[in-house]
């Protein structure tokens, strides 16, 4: 008899279920029994793509099965690799307790981690002083400098050439899309390093003493450094002067503009990040306009 009884047939069906405690409770209870872990009340965690719940002092992440329309096999192996690597490099991440898969109505992969008592940065941003932000930016730079170094290949993602990573640019003007593709083809990007790939305000947890813990490595890839730094500047910091000072130090605006420009053009989330933090896609008739708008945002925040 299956413990997971609902139907999953595409993303919409998964989207309706992945935060449902009653739907996942029998499956989670069985996994905890298998791993010989104490099972207590299930609580929600910040939603993402996969099913994530808190159970006592643990967090379980159940990856979307293939029937959801998402191939999360690579997400699972990527996160497993990235978390183990982060620990070796002295980066604070949740302690991995167990990992595996369970064959039920669907094949589910899972990770169980120790719960970190911290708050997402985006939830306490408004409480932070300028000095706090500078210090956090500086601490984060030390952590990313440890992570953002060359490493062995750990998935098949090609951030520059993979055509499947172009969907977020579909709504942009035709001239912009053409110029973007030509620019990426001809630009000499730096060597590929390990990048977390999604350092946003949900994925940085701050402890009471402002220790930074990094979570959710499922989008990690090997990419030029600008891939990481552009998202940090535009999405995590939203060009905030204090954060930027802490992270980028005295780097000139021209240099940071180029980091953001080049990084966003190759980032899997770049098309969305631009619309959310820079301007509507309809305003970008060509690449020069994007560069000018980034430069203006950085200048106005000085």
Work out the helix count: 11
Number of domains: 2
Report the order of strands and helices.
HHEEEHEEEHHHEEEEHHHHH
CATH architecture of the largest domain: Alpha-Beta Complex
The main sheet orders its strands as 1-2-3-5-4
Question: Which regions contain 5 or more consecutive residues with pLDDT less than 50?
Answer: none
CATH class category of the largest domain: Alpha Beta
How does the major sheet shape up? 5 strands, antiparallel
Rounded to the nearest angstrom, the distance between the terminal CA atoms is 62 Å
Shape: globular
Tell me the radius of gyration. 20 Å
Strand pairing plus helix content: what structural class? Answer: alpha+beta
Mean pLDDT: 95
The CATH topology annotation of the largest domain reads as Aminoglycoside 3'-phosphotransferase, Chain: A, domain 2
Strand content: 5-15%
What is the helix fraction of residues, given as a range? 40-55%
Compute the number of strand runs.
10
């Amino acid at each position: 008899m299956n413990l997971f009884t609902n139907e999953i047939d595409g993303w919409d069906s998964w989207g309706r279920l992945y935060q449902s405690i009653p739907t996942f409770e029998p499956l989670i209870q069985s996994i905890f029994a298998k791993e010989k872990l104490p099972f207590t009340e299930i609580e929600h965690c910040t939603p993402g793509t996969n099913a994530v719940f808190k159970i006592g002092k643990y967090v379980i992440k159940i990856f979307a099965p293939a029937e959801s329309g998402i191939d999360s096999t690579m997400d699972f192996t990527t996160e497993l690799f990235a978390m183990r690597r982060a620990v070796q490099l002295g980066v604070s991440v949740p302690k991995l307790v167990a990992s595996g898969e369970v064959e039920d109505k669907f094949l589910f992969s899972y990770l169980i981690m120790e719960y970190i008592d911290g708050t997402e940065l985006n939830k306490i941003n408004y409480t932070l002083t300028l000095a706090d932000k500078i210090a956090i930016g500086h601490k984060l730079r030390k952590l990313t400098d440890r992570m953002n170094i060359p490493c062995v290949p750990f998935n098949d993602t090609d951030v520059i050439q993979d055509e499947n990573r172009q969907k977020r640019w579909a709504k942009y003007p035709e001239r912009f899309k053409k110029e973007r593709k030509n620019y990426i083809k001809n630009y000499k990007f730096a060597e590929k390093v390990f990048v977390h790939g999604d350092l946003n305000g949900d994925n940085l947890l701050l402890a009471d003493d402002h220790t930074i813990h990094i979570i959710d490595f499922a989008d990690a890839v090997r990419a030029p450094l600008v891939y990481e730094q552009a998202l940090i500047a535009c999405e995590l910091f939203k060009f905030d002067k204090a954060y930027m000072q802490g992270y980028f130090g005295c780097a000139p605006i021209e240099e940071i503009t180029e980091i953001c420009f080049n990084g966003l053009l190759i980032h899997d989330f770049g098309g969305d990040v631009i619309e959310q933090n820079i301007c509507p896609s309809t305003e970008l008739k060509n690449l020069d306009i994007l560069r000018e708008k980034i430069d203006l945002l950085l200048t106005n925040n000085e």
